[in-house]
Amino acid sequence: MSKYEYIDSLRNDPANTNPVTSMCRWLQVSTSGFYHWRSRPQSATGARREQLAKRIVFFFEESEGVYGYRRIHADLRAEAIECSPELVRQIMKDEGLVPCQVRPYKVTTTPDLHGAEEVPDLVERDFTADRPGIKFVGDITYIRTSWIPAIVATRDLQDFQ
């Protein structure tokens, strides 16, 4: 962000009460240079980046926020839009587009029917005890919960209490 862009963002902020002349003096730029910058027409590069940003946002939203800059660059190339992967990465960063890579589900536990039959049930399914330190039991079953919405998970946890 240039100094002029920073001054312009502060000038449009309702919480800021500083005049433009003071902000220009603090950042060591001329006030006339700031107003000249504001009145200039958009450059060809700026217009191209703006058009490219619209297409990048479109592809990002179409992929439901999964595609990174490499895949979006491939989509742009498929439309015959010339740009570099680095330019796509920079525009995604400027637009605040952060991809979320969905990781494939990996089974971490498998039922061992033969092993379960060999383990004796020493507590005979009675997990209550009259005082602490008598029965030590545990369950290491893996339960995938990352896909459960927070409301459902909270409701289910309340059912267990």
Automatic annotation (TrEMBL):
One Pfam family in the UniProt entry: HTH_21
Superkingdom: Bacteria
Protein name per UniProt: IS3 family transposase
Domain HTH-like: 48-102
Family matches, as PANTHER family: TRANSPOSASE INSF FOR INSERTION SEQUENCE IS3B-RELATED (PTHR46889), TRANSPOSASE INSO FOR INSERTION SEQUENCE ELEMENT IS911B-RELATED (PTHR46889:SF4)
Stored InterPro entries: HTH-like_dom, Transposase_IS3/IS150/IS904
